[in-house]
Design brief:
This protein is α+β, with helices and mostly antiparallel strands and 205 residues long. The chain contains six helices and ten strands; from the N terminus they run H-E-E-H-E-E-E-E-E-H-E-H-H-E-E-H. The strands form two sheets. Strands 1, 2, 3, 4, 5, 6 and 7 form a seven-stranded mixed sheet that branches.
Length: 205
C-alpha cells in the first residue's frame, strides 16, 4: 500500500510539496502544492503543459500530469516545511515517453529481466561564487593548481559542512569533500546506490 502523503504531512509538519520532474536538458520543473491538496494530487497528479518545458511536445498536445512517487519523498533539511517529490509524467492515461524518469525506469525493467541491477554513484561538483555572480566567493582562492588545497577548503568550511550535514540527514551517505581543479570549485562524493534513488538525490542537490 502506498504511503499516505497527506498523513505524512501532518506527522512531519510539512506545509508544501514540490511535485517535480526533469526535462530533457536536466532542468528541474516543479509545482508547489499546499499540503491540504496533496491527497488529490497523489491520485491524479499535478498538471503541466509539456510544451512549456523542454520536452518533445507542442501546444497542440494535451496537458500532462506529474503523479508523485511517495517513496521519493525528501523533507528538505534546510526548509522542513517543504517536502520534495519526484513524479512520473502521464498523458492520456499513458506514461510520457519524453520523460527522463520514465526512460530510466524502462531501462531498469529491461536489466531486471536479465537479473541485473543498475546502480550509480554521484560525484557532484559545484562553484561557490559571490552573490552578484561576478566572481568566486573566496578572493584568496588564486592558486594556478588549486586541487585539494586544504587552506581554500577550510576557508569555506562552514558552508561545505552545512551542505554535507544536510546530505547526512537525508541519508545519502556523503563520504568526502575536496577543493576541485578550478578556483572556487568544490566536489562532494556520496555512496553509490540503486540508480532511481540516486537520480532523485542529484536533482534535489
Amino acid at each position: 500500500m502506498p504511503k499516505n502523503l497527506f498523513k505524512i504531512a501532518k506527522e512531519k509538519k510539512i506545509k508544501y510539496f514540490l511535485i517535480s520532474f526533469v526535462d530533457l536538458f536536466g532542468v528541474l520543473r516543479s509545482k508547489l502544492v499546499p499540503a491540504h491538496a496533496i491527497k488529490d494530487m497523489q491520485e491524479t497528479g499535478a498538471g503541466f503543459a509539456g510544451f512549456a518545458a523542454w520536452l518533445d511536445m507542442t501546444p497542440a498536445d494535451s496537458d500532462m500530469f506529474g503523479i508523485p512517487d511517495p517513496d521519493s519523498l525528501i523533507q528538505l533539511p534546510w526548509n522542513k516545511e517543504v517536502g520534495w517529490l519526484a513524479s512520473d509524467l502521464w498523458m492520456n492515461a499513458k506514461p510520457v515517453d519524453a520523460s527522463p524518469r520514465i526512460m530510466l525506469k524502462k531501462q531498469i525493467k529491461k536489466l531486471s529481466k536479465q537479473g541485473l541491477t543498475m546502480k550509480s554513484g554521484v560525484e557532484c561538483e559545484y562553484f561557490l561564487i559571490s552573490p552578484d555572480g561576478d566572481s568566486i566567493a573566496d578572493p584568496r582562492d588564486t592558486q594556478s593548481k588549486p586541487c585539494y588545497d586544504q587552506s581554500a577548503l577550510m576557508r569555506r568550511y562552514d558552508l561545505i559542512k552545512e551542505i554535507c550535514d544536510c546530505m547526512i540527514e537525508m541519508g545519502w551517505g556523503p563520504y568526502q569533500n575536496d577543493h576541485e581543479d578550478a578556483n572556487g570549485q568544490f566536489e562532494m562524493n556520496w555512496d553509490y546506490s540503486e540508480c532511481l534513488k540516486n537520480s532523485r538525490q542529484t536533482y534535489v542537490f
